[in-house]
Amino acid sequence: MLATLWVTTQCNMKCRYCYEGHDKTNRMMSIETADKSIQYIMKHFNELNEDTLIINFHGGEPLLQFDLIKYITEEFKQIFSSSSKRLMFGLTTNGILLDEKIEEYLCKNFYYSLSASLDGNKLINDTNRMLKNGRGTYDLIIDKFVSLLKIRQDVRIRMTFNTDTVHNLYESVKHLVKIGFNTIIPVADYFDDRWDKHHIDILHKEAEKIFEMFKREKEKNSNLSISIVDVEIYKKGNCGGGITTLNIDPDGDIYPCTYVVEDEEYRIGNIDTGINKVKLQKIHSIFNTKNEICNDCSYYNYCSATRCKLINKVLTNNFNIPSPVMCAMENIMYKFSKYNLKVS
């Protein structure tokens, strides 16, 4: 089970492509809501009778609430101290607030995922990732991320690209490989409405160059992983939103999916009242509908767009129509997974 706790919606940056928008609500989870969230998550987890609980911290920038994150982490560790079940923690940070104390704590406790956001070299990163005053962030965070890497070789770099930076995707990945990062996760900005055939063609060409580099670098570093060309593909079942995955916002409201948090239409309950099973069932009935536009695609059973109907709705205003760039990304990953004979 994966429970994502939105400890804040506040952020200390103003990235151009932020899908949460620039007019954030600036809400902070209280310790009272945190305590109730812990209780609700444990109740839900025990009812599911699963073997592993993953607690993922989200924002805004979650490290604005580091003290609360530490409190919640220690509370869960105490609960699981005598349990045979597995407990894991995850977090993605923009790095601005990282210091020696925070780095040490995260590296010691966060083994589901410890992710840092960085889009490439200084020029590319600072195109979109900046402070509220417009200052680029590369120089503020690169040494901190390298410091993390020295402690944890598995620190993940999450890099976002859009139509402004896709033509530099290969160079951006190459830069991160040269620094020494082993796990690089390029992610398209699905909310960029300028994606068209021209930009998608560029994306395919950049992916080809990344794949050729990956094959060369993999011979020198067996730990290297670049997700766009090195992801294990598997058949996907129906979404477990609201069942095996929960999103709890700073006020304790519950949502099935990260992309719909703060959208009242998809609020399925609250930590005080529990989940509205009728509303959840209605949402899940949408998950069972077919993407007729995708029927002839050989990748249908492996694709996120045929499974994640809520993101389709957010991006195209139709539950059963994927966005073109999401389709392109999925097909790129499928192509290189087939090449590596990883499809199962």
Automatic annotation (TrEMBL):
<protein>
    <submittedName>
        <fullName>Radical SAM protein</fullName>
    </submittedName>
</protein>
<feature type="domain" description="Radical SAM core">
    <location>
        <begin position="1"/>
        <end position="220"/>
    </location>
</feature>
<dbReference type="Pfam" id="PF13186">
    <property type="entry name" value="SPASM"/>
</dbReference>
<dbReference type="Pfam" id="PF04055">
    <property type="entry name" value="Radical_SAM"/>
</dbReference>
<dbReference type="InterPro" id="IPR023885">
    <property type="entry name" value="4Fe4S-binding_SPASM_dom"/>
</dbReference>
<dbReference type="InterPro" id="IPR007197">
    <property type="entry name" value="rSAM"/>
</dbReference>
<dbReference type="InterPro" id="IPR023867">
    <property type="entry name" value="Sulphatase_maturase_rSAM"/>
</dbReference>
